[in-house]
Amino acid sequence: MTRFKIALLTGDGIGPEISNSSVAILKTLSEQFHLRLDIRNVEAGDRTLKRLGKALPQESIDVIETSDVCLKGPVGETAADVIVKLRQLLDLYANLRPAKAYPQVSNYRQGIDLLIVRENTEDLYRGHEFEFDGGAVALRLITKNACSRIAEYAFRMARERGLQKRVIAVHKANVLRKTDGLFSRVCREVASRNVDIDFNEMYVDAAAMNLIRNPNQFDVLVTTNLYGDILSDEAAQLVGGLGVAPSANVGDNFALFEPVHGSAPDIAGKGIANPLAMLLCVKMMMDWWALKSADESARRAAEALEDAVLCTLARTRTPDLGGNSSTREVTNSVIRQLKKEPRS
Ligand code: GGG
Predict the structure, then answer these.
(1) Would 1-95+242-344 and 109-238 be classified into the same CATH topology?
(2) Residue-by-residue DSSP string for 63-102
(3) How many Cβ atoms sit within 10 Å of the Cβ of residue 192?
(4) Is this prediction's pTM over 0.85?
(5) Phi/psi of residue 129, each to 5°?
């Protein structure tokens, strides 16, 4: 069995607490499924900036680049210097943000199972911002190549998910004629090569409304960087909130997994942060590794972890989900579920 090298970036605020929870779960998974996991700690974020003068030191980049995957907690005000930079540096061009309704979550909207495929390397998040006397300007970069590969990715996802087999391209091409116009044209071209998948387009304002009005019409949404960031928070709220929203940043050979939520400094250190979004990232990471290395144990570990999270949600919840359990209690419940049945 191959060794799976995981760079663990714990981050700021609640990051260390939910990362501890993830490490405990990874240890349990490695025992239960005989996985060979090698966890390497790396530092980045606000605290690192304060300590070393750099939010993302070169030593951290080196460890990440020599690992198979990165599992990342949230960072605070240095997101642009850490996650946005890592996405560009490692060419993690597809940001996958699923929103799935689990009946075990009390405030969910029934039946939702959608995936936002967000272009992850361009748009306003490229960070080309300039100040001038009396104002500021930001450049929005959209290229044909990036539109094409993210659209192809979205169609592949719609096919692999095998649900509604529908892709909706979300943009605002009626106003942003050059940038979103290009995105729309390229998505249409890609759609013409993927005729087994239903294709439609929707303006981003309409998409924001329709997510509330009729979320079940959505299967895969493909969109540009900024719209994807905003719509994915909205979609997460429909299925219980950011506490259960995982994400993957995927390139051709590397992936980084992180909860969608931020560092939540208001509850940091109180022991009540919801670890489940990060644990669902561990599940996505195991699925990705299983596919990449044809490792059946990793696939079964991913499946068992999702089951354990669902069992836990039914009875043990942190305050963001209306419960009164602590991070540790939720983590211990997931561990108990994982250990319930002996596995080979
Ligand atoms: N809205 C949740 C949140 O704060 N997420 C962290 C964040 O801003 N990440 C930057 C990104 O995903 O582009």
Answers:
(1) yes
(2) HHHTSSEEEE---STTHHHHHHHHHHHTT--EEEEEEE--
(3) 9
(4) yes
(5) -120, 140
Structure-token pair, residue 86:
């890592």
- The two three-digit tokens of residue 126, written as one number: 């490229």
Question: What's the pLDDT at 344?
Answer: 47
Determine the pLDDT at residue 2: 72
Indicate the helix (H) or strand (E) that contains 287: helix 276-293
Instruction: Please choose from 83, 223, 229, 281 the residue to mutate so as to test ligand 1's pocket, defined by most ligand atoms within 8 A of CB.
Output: 229
| Catalytic residue from among 172, 227, 283, 287 | 172
Domain 1-95+242-344 has CATH 3.20.20.80: no
Query: Are 256 and 302 a contacting pair, CB within 8 Å?
Result: no
Domain spans of the chain, in order of start: 1-95+242-344, 109-238
Residue nearest to atom 1 of ligand 1 (CA): 261
- Give yes or no for residue 262 CB within 6 A of ligand 1: yes
In contact, 64 and 86? CB cutoff 8 Å: yes
Q: Give every CB contact of residue 150 below 8 A, 6+ residues apart in sequence.
A: 93, 94, 117, 118, 119, 120, 222
125 is catalytic: yes
| Number of Cβ atoms within 10 Å of the Cβ of 251 | 15
Q: Is 73 left (phi over 0), alpha (psi -120 to 50) or beta?
A: beta
261 Cα to the center of ligand 1, angstroms: 6
Instruction: Give me Rg for the CA atoms of the chain.
Output: 20
Q: Which residues of the chain have pLDDT under 50?
A: 344
Furthest-apart CA pair in the chain: how many Å?
Answer: 67
**Would you tell me the crossing angle of helices 58-65 and 79-89 to the nearest 10 degrees?**
40
Q: What type of residue sits at position 174? A: N
- What pLDDT sits at residue 194? 98
Domain 109-238 CATH assignment equals 3.30.1460.10 = no
* Ligand 1 centroid – CA 262 distance (Å): 6
pLDDT of residue 1: 64
Q: What confidence score (pLDDT) does residue 105 get?
A: 85
